[in-house]
């Protein structure tokens, strides 16, 4: 998937991946896509909840080795 910005949150535990995701999205324009890499198992549910609460759609979620990969579109 094409993306405009990448955030590496691997090795960080809750709530840091969400905090850093929010900060990264704030610097982006609507329609742009943020790729987030995380290793915290809880980040899967956290990203889903974050996307619903903020109106930034979670376009795709995949797993790559020990990392979870999220693509969020700035709403």
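^ structure tokens above, recovered residues below v
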């Amino acid at each position: 998937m094409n993306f405009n910005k990448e955030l590496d949150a691997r090795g960080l535990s809750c709530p840091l991946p969400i905090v850093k995701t929010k900060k990264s999205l704030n610097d982006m324009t609507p329609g742009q896509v943020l790729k987030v890499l995380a290793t915290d198992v809880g980040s899967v549910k956290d990203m889903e909840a974050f996307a619903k609460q903020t109106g930034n759609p979670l376009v795709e979620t995949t797993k790559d080795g020990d990392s979870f990969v999220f693509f969020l579109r700035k709403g």
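The longest strand covers residues 58-64.
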